[in-house]
Design brief:
By secondary structure, this protein is an alpha+beta fold. Helices cover 35% and strands 23% of the residues. The chain is globular, with a radius of gyration of 32 Å. One of its GO terms (molecular function) is lysine-tRNA ligase activity.
Length: 572
């Protein structure tokens, strides 16, 4: 059973009334539009003759009914526009039903209409659309939340509950149109990035999302099963190993924008499904990649904001290069005063204990260093900073450092305390790579569920020879957060993962009878759209008494009217 509010019941009745009038509330035919609200506001004053015979469509967002003429607002994808609806204009014949009944009574906020007419300026100077023809395009049977704005357009009573906004993004986008700008910016970030890569001659490709071996990152995968092949498969945690196969195959540069899936925790910067861009360029190293990333981010921020300086919270972040570079060991030394570069696993565990960092037996040397770095260093990296030269245990897919024993050629880019990019000089020695995978298997045996699996086909590809290559991954969601000044990843995802909605418990007849309600009166309650105990408790005793007595008579129920005292006892 679907629980309906009084407004929802009334809107369904309006829908039925439209049908009785011969008006289809959901017509199948196209409605031709030749103008948008933004176009009108921008260009009308300079080209008034172009706006004499135009059509536009959108949602009704407000109405001011004034007898035989009314003002309203419609909202299309580009913004809002005031419309002027006069009865004799849309009803030139004797039949005034379209105005008197349809527009005034059966249409409501949230309904879609299409209008034809011309633009004029009101006496108060507001650009408005004079309607000469009106068509119902879609009847909304659920009311939109009411968002109140002051004379300057500032919201003071809006649809602001994050739980509701993220779960019902379609409503959020409708009543909070400024939210659209976040996603417009997100698209611009991706399109600018794609243009930069294409201009350099690198090829956009697609690789499998369902993979037989999960690899390319240290993360827990989602697993599934393919019935026909009768084999387990994993949603990819990274696309790295397939993109490298393409470098082996002869491409000099490949990149992919794609969804990654990691079966891990959720917080303000993590969603189990996220968007990543990975790029691999042959004959390059991680030093070259640092310079490329600086050029890329400068271009993106300049294109979107007109400057490389971006406001993030209360900070001003400058994406103009060059960025600071500091090794992981040196960054830990700088912010803790402890040199961990020569420590073994036991020494690192002691450091973690002294710093109050929790550990477990599954953590190897790399994980312990990563924990120290994450707790003591990350939050201090506000301006764009490259953390370089990671311990070999932390990065099974990166090439050994050319001059520093025990390290690999890797960097991560941190901005405002968050990692937004990760890059290596890629490991292309198949013998070394196999040994690294074997070390990962040992960690997995210790209980590390983020350890990488052995990928024999990837090793076979490397055995055919891969040229020197540099690879980069950028988290699109986190980059979008920074460039739109948002503090949670949910704000930059159209449909973030959410816990299941709590289902409303429909009361049984027995639930009502426990409260002393005679079984014969329960149909009257249900006819009043009271289906839960919560709905019952919200009722006013006097009104409920009158309503139940009225419905008992209307439904011809074979039971006596309750007394007012009895109704009051139901609500106690």
């Amino acid at each position: 059973m679907q629980l309906l509010s009084e407004q929802e019941i009334e809107r369904r009745k309006d829908r039925e009334e439209l049908m009785k009038l011969g008006i289809n509330p959901y017509p199948a035919e196209s409605f031709q539009i030749n103008v948008t609200a933004a176009d009108i506001h921008k260009n009308y004053e300079n080209n008034k003759t172009d706006y004499k015979d135009i059509t536009i469509a959108g949602r009704l967002m407000s109405r001011r009914i004034m007898g035989s003429a009314s003002f309203a607002e419609i909202q299309d994808a580009t913004g809002r526009l005031q419309i002027y609806v006069r009865r004799d204009d849309i009803c030139p014949e004797e039949d005034k039903t379209l105005y008197n009944t349809v527009f005034k009574k059966l249409l409501g906020i949230g309904d879609f209409i299409g209008v034809k007419g011309y633009i004029f300026t009101t006496q108060t100077g507001e650009i408005s659309f004079h309607v000469t023809d009106l068509k119902v395009l879609s009847k909304a049977v659920k009311p939109l939340p009411v968002v109140k704005r002051d004379e300057e357009g500032n919201v003071y009573d809006g649809f602001t509950d994050p739980e509701m906004r993220y779960r019902q993004r379609y409503v959020d986008l409708t009543v909070n149109p400024e939210v659209k700008e976040v996603f417009v910016t997100r698209t611009k970030i991706i399109s600018n990035m794609r243009r930069f890569f294409d201009d350099n001659g690198w090829l956009e490709v697609e690789t499998p999302i369902l993979q037989a071996v999960h690899g390319g990152a240290a993360a827990r995968p989602f697993n599934t099963h393919h019935n026909t092949l009768d084999m387990p498969l994993y949603l990819r945690i990274a696309n790295e190993l397939y993109l490298k196969r393409l470098i082996v195959g002869g491409f000099d540069g490949v990149y992919e924008f794609g969804k990654m899936f990691r079966n891990e925790g959720m917080d303000r910067t993590h969603n189990p499904e996220f968007t990543s861009m990975e790029i691999y360029v042959a004959y390059k190293d991680y030093i070259w990649m640092m310079e490329m990333v600086e050029q890329l981010l400068e271009k993106i921020t300049q294109s979107i904001h007109g400057t490389t300086v971006v406001t993030v919270g209360d900070k001003q972040i400058d994406f103009a290069g060059p960025y600071r570079r500091i090794s992981m060991y040196d960054s830990i030394l700088e912010y803790t005063g402890i040199n961990v570069s020569e420590m073994d696993e036991n020494g690192l565990r002691e450091v973690c204990k002294n710093l109050g960092i929790e550990t477990d037996a599954s953590m190897g040397k790399g994980k312990l260093i990563d924990e120290i770095f994450g707790v003591k260093v990350e939050d201090n990296l506000i301006q764009p900073t490259y953390i370089t030269d990671y311990p070999i245990e932390m990065t099974p897919l990166a090439k050994k450092h050319r001059s520093k024993e025990g390290l690999v050629e890797r960097f991560e880019l941190f901005v405002n305390g968050k990692e937004i990019a990760n890059a290596y000089s890629e490991l292309n020695d198949p013998i070394d790579q196999r040994e690294r995978f074997e070390e990962q298997l040992k960690l997995a045996a210790r209980g590390d569920d983020e350890a990488m699996a052995m990928d024999e086909d990837f090793l076979r590809a490397l055995e055919y020879g891969m040229p020197p290559t540099s690879g980069l991954g950028i988290g699109i969601d986190r980059l979008t957060m920074m460039l739109t000044n948002k503090t949670t990843i949910q704000e930059v995802l159209f449909f973030p993962q959410m816990r299941p909605e709590k289902k409303v418990k429909i009361a049984t007849d027995e639930d009502f009878m426990v409260l002393g309600i005679p079984q014969g009166l329960i149909p009257a309650l249900r006819d009043l759209n009271i289906h839960t105990l919560e709905q019952l408790k919200e009722q006013d005793a006097n009104k409920l008494f009158n309503d139940v007595c009225g419905r008992r008579k209307k439904l011809k129920l074979d039971v006596s009217n309750p007394t007012k005292e009895e109704v009051e006892s139901w609500l106690e």
